[in-house]
Amino acid sequence: MISEYLTLNTSAEIICFVIAFICLIKDKSLAWRSMVLFLLITCITELTGIYIKKLYLADTVHVRPNIWIYNVLIIFQAGFTSLMFSHLLNKYINSKPIIIGGLAILFIMYVIEICIHGVFEKHNLTTTTMSVLFVLFSLFYFFQLNNDADYIVLKNSPAFWWVSGVLFFYFGRTACNIFYYKLSLVVVTPRHYLTYYIYNALNILLYACWSYSFICRKWLTTTSKSLY
Questions:
Q1: What is the per-residue pLDDT for 226?
Q2: Per-residue DSSP letter, 153
Q3: Is this prediction's pTM over 0.85?
Q4: The Cα angle at residue 98 between residues 199 and 143, in degrees rounded to 5
Q5: What SS3 state is found at 56?
Q6: What per-residue confidence (pLDDT) applies to 228?
Q7: Helix 30-58 crosses helix 194-222 at what angle (to 10 degrees)?
Q8: 146: nearest Cα among 92, 110, 189
Q9: To the nearest 10°, the Cα dihedral for 140, 141, 144, 146?
Q10: Least reliable range by pLDDT among 14-18, 71-75, 154-158, 209-213
C-alpha cells in the first residue's frame, strides 16, 4: 500500500525535492542546482529501501537486508554536500584543499569498511566521520560568516539556512550515535524506541531548513539581490 511508502521521513524528503525542483531547476549555480538531483536520488533510495525491507521480511533466506542501498547513498551524500560547502566557502577562502582532503578521508574509510565487512553491513565508521566533517565545515562557515564585513539578513539568507540544516542534522545524529545504546533502551511506544523519534525529528529539521533555503534562494534570485 502507498501508505507504507509515505512515511513521515519520506514525505518530508519528497516535499523538499518538489520545492527544490520548483526553486532551483533553473538556478545559474551548479551547486544549488545539484540539490535537485541529490534529493531525487535520496527519495528513490528511501522508497527502494522500504521496498527491499518488505521483501526481506517476507523472505529472509533469499533476500539481503536493505542496508547496502544506504551505504551506496553515503557516496552521494558526501559528494553533493561537499560540492555545496565548496561553493559556499569559496566566498571566503580557497576551499578546495579542505574539501578534497575531507573527501579523501571519507574514501579511505569507505574502502576500509568494504574490506572489513562488505556492503551488507552498515558503514558506521564512514558515517560518523562524515558527520564530524560536515559539522566542522558548518562551524567553519559560521565563523567566516560572523567575520563577514557585508551586512547579511540571516532570515533571508539561503546559505545560512542550508548550513543550519546540515549542522542540526549531523550534530544531532552524531550525538545520538554516541548515546545510541542508552537511548535505544527508552521505549516510547510498543513499536518504537526514542531513537526512532529523534532521527525522524532530525530529518524533518534538515528538510525544513533546506526547503526554506531553496525558497530564499529563488526569492533572492528573482529580486536580483545578493545570492549569499
A1: 45
A2: -
A3: yes
A4: 70
A5: helix
A6: 44
A7: 150
A8: 92
A9: -110
A10: 154-158
